[in-house]
Amino acid sequence: MKNHPVNLFFLLFGITIFTACNDKKECANPETLKKEIIKTEKEFEIAAKNMGIAEAFYFYADSNAVIKRGENVLIKGKENIKLYYSKPYFLNASVVWTPDFVDVSERGDLAYTYGKYVWQAQDSTCVIHEETGIFHTVWKKQKDGSWKYVWD
Asked: How does DSSP assign the chain, residue by residue?
């Protein structure tokens, strides 16, 4: 059989289609990924309540995570993030948040969310202090398929 241009076209087209989705990151469904991120955000929030803030922020952090707190203070690395949240202030604190927006990269390996949060902490005189604000989190898909934050 001669190599006819039409046959060659269909052969190359078939190979392209077959290999294009071989890398799951390239073929990820954006809506499915957005649901994964929202689920991860909710699990993170529940973990903060059940495990404690330091453990939750440690567990959901990428090894190279960075958080910005206070007046332009950057805390780098999950170990330092855990140390930061191990301060006495956070032992009697709670935090709740809700993403108002989520988007994912075309490759499906990065995502970001933003929304509102509420921190509550009790001081030594049993007065509860509340702080509200806007959060912005950048998520990175890990090799095991889980999501960890790289920026918060």
From this structure: ----HHHHHHHHHHHHHHHHTTSGGGG--HHHHHHHHHHHHHHHHHHHHHT-HHHHHHHTEEEEEEEEETTTEEEESHHHHHHHHTSHHHHTEEEEEEEEEEEE-TTSSEEEEEEEEEEEEE-TTS-EEEEEEEEEEEEEE-TTS-EEEEE-
